[in-house]
């Protein structure tokens, strides 16, 4: 078996025997941060992308670009 380098896919919290113990906490913290960003301080508009591929994690093959506008 020949190893030619790393994969281009990233699984944020690993998997298998070395699964990250802080996975759920970090997901809750990121969801809280995005909620506060979106609903308290900014509004956003999708510029391009947004096609979601549901694999073991979420993947955006075309990227997900947004434009932020401050709330008045």
From TrEMBL:
Which SUPFAM superfamilies does the record associate with it? Cytochrome P450
Reply yes or no: does the keyword Iron apply: yes
Matching InterPro entries, A to Z? Cyt_P450, Cyt_P450_CS, Cyt_P450_sf
Q: Which organism is it from?
A: Aegilops tauschii subsp. strangulata
Family of this protein: Belongs to the cytochrome P450 family.
Alphabetized UniProt keyword annotations: Heme, Iron, Metal-binding, Monooxygenase, Oxidoreductase
What GO MF annotations does this protein's record show? heme binding; iron ion binding; monooxygenase activity; oxidoreductase activity, acting on paired donors, with incorporation or reduction of molecular oxygen
Q: Does the keyword Cytoplasm apply?
A: no
Would you tell me the protein name for this molecule? Cytochrome P450 87A3
The domain of life for this entry's organism is Eukaryota
């Amino acid at each position: 078996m020949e190893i030619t380098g790393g994969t281009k896919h990233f699984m944020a919290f690993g998997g298998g025997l070395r699964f990250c113990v802080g996975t759920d906490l970090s997901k809750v913290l990121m969801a809280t941060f995005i909620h506060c960003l979106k609903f308290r301080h900014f509004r956003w508009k999708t510029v391009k992308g947004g096609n979601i591929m549901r694999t073991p994690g979420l993947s955006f093959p075309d990227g997900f670009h947004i434009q932020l506008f401050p709330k008045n």
